[in-house]
Design brief:
7 strands, 21% strand, alpha/beta
């Protein structure tokens, strides 16, 4: 069991080390730019209030932090949490013009911040990569303020058979695009496998409830290619 956990940690870390320089470009290519729309929908539903604070976990190159900062009229405080130093450094470069931003090099399962600290917790395309989802959810609950909101954007299960079939066929080409553009197919083989193995919308909602969240809801984007989950610490 311990070695399985270590294996996943090492695999995920090496995947993002391989991909960090081309991460943004590849996202734009393989999603035809649509990931930007999904992230905008995510922040629109979150609807951050001015002078609030966010912890963005698995922050990668900082897309969510940037959208949150702009949506809250540049009045917010943001903490980005990312275990892969290469991804974290890409984020720092991309968001160098944002004030009030802090970077923590840490896993989602164990974040070195005090209880009841944040108004919002976000994890975008990160929860599929963590080793222990329940520990991650418990940790997010601990660090949110009472009344705080957890939001997750993640690949999910498509609710339309034809689209699902087409998506599966398209997925097979993604590792080839990765090899051609980014020089390696390994991260993209991992991406496809990890999406296939991940929970569906209801299963993730149930795990959120089980780990303390109230008023749990989800919304599909693009027929469930991705889903946005929301829950509250009450
Ligand atoms: C697909 S990227 C998502 C980046 C960004 N949030 C976005 O939406 O574009 C996933 C990120 O999760 C990070 N990650 C992997 N395992 C993690 C863990 N256990 N805790 C926190 N982040 C993790 C990776 O290093 C990577 O930067």
């Amino acid at each position: 069991m311990k070695s399985t956990i270590e294996d996943k940690k090492k695999l995920v870390n090496s995947v993002f080390t391989d991909v960090h320089k081309n991460y943004d470009l590849m996202n734009d290519i393989i999603s035809f730019g649509i990931h930007r729309k999904w992230k905008e929908k995510f922040i629109d539903w979150m609807n951050p209030q001015p002078y609030s604070n966010l912890i963005d976990v698995a922050s990668g190159t900082g897309d969510i932090a940037k959208l949150f900062y702009n949506k809250s009229n540049k009045t917010s405080e943001i903490t980005c949490v990312e275990p892969n130093v290469h991804m974290l450094n890409q984020g720092k470069i991309k968001l160098k013009n944002i004030d009030n931003i802090k970077w923590i090099n840490s896993l989602a399962e164990n974040i070195p911040v005090t209880d009841d600290t944040y108004d919002y917790y976000s994890i975008s395309y990160g929860i599929r990569n963590v080793v222990d989802i329940e520990k991650t959810l418990k940790e997010s609950f601990r660090i949110l303020k009472p009344g705080g909101r957890f939001m997750c954007l993640e690949f999910s299960k498509i609710d339309n058979e034809i689209l699902s079939f087409l998506y599966k066929q398209y997925s097979k080409t993604i590792p080839f695009i990765g090899k051609y553009v980014a020089g390696s197919d390994k991260p993209y083989k991992y991406l496809i496998k990890s999406i296939e193995k991940f929970h569906n919308q209801e299963q993730l909602a149930e795990l959120m409830r089980k780990n303390g969240f109230s008023n749990v809801e989800f919304r599909n984007v693009s027929n469930g290619i991705s889903a946005i989950h929301s829950g509250w610490k009450i």
